[in-house]
Amino acid sequence: GAGVSQTPSNKVTEKGKYVELRCDPISGHTALYWYRQSLGQGPEFLIYFQGTGAADDSGLPNDRFFAVRPEGSVSTLKIQRTERGDSAVYLCASSLKGASGSYTDTQYFGPGTRLTVL
Amino acid sequence: GNSVTQMEGPVTLSEEAFLTINCTYTATGYPSLFWYVQYPGEGLQLLLKATKADDKGSNKGFEATYRKETTSFHLEKGSVQVSDSAVYFCALRGTNAGKSTFGDGTTLTVKP
User: In chain B, which residues have their Cβ closer than 8 Å to the Cβ of A67?
Assistant: First the structure.
């Protein structure tokens, strides 16, 4: 079946602009995660959705970052007033359950969106 | 908070050599432990996992054993191939936590 998809695959923007990154999880997966991966580092957690609600947004670096998942499927990560330090690969993952007590279920990752802020 | 420390790379081996990539962790409770692999130009893929102490995860000839006494989850393979060249990430998920915590990755290059 189809895996996690992310669009766009690449996004180049100018400092100060607004960007939206989209994630389409595997059908039926209730949990959705956003991570950010800077060059030479491992993915860093941003936010996690269980259904439509953000169960944990402790990784969002500041109030310029916001994410939504209005219908419990597709999610959009929104970055306002982008800065050069926001340049990274943004990864989305989904898992079947993800709820408390189900931390063993497999997270499936998308190919990522490479964001470059000039 | 939770953290994962991986052996620094890069690691370069000849084909058929033995591979060990060290991984240690800090976490409260009893986390699940994972190894992910990222092949050139591809996304992150789960390689193997272990969900409780003394469990051994295995896949594609790779193995890792969950050692709670040493808080380690070292990745091993007895005979590497050129096709194993990739970046390997160790990760954990704590109890009651959806998110994963990753190490910084170890780049493996296998030469023929």
Answer: none
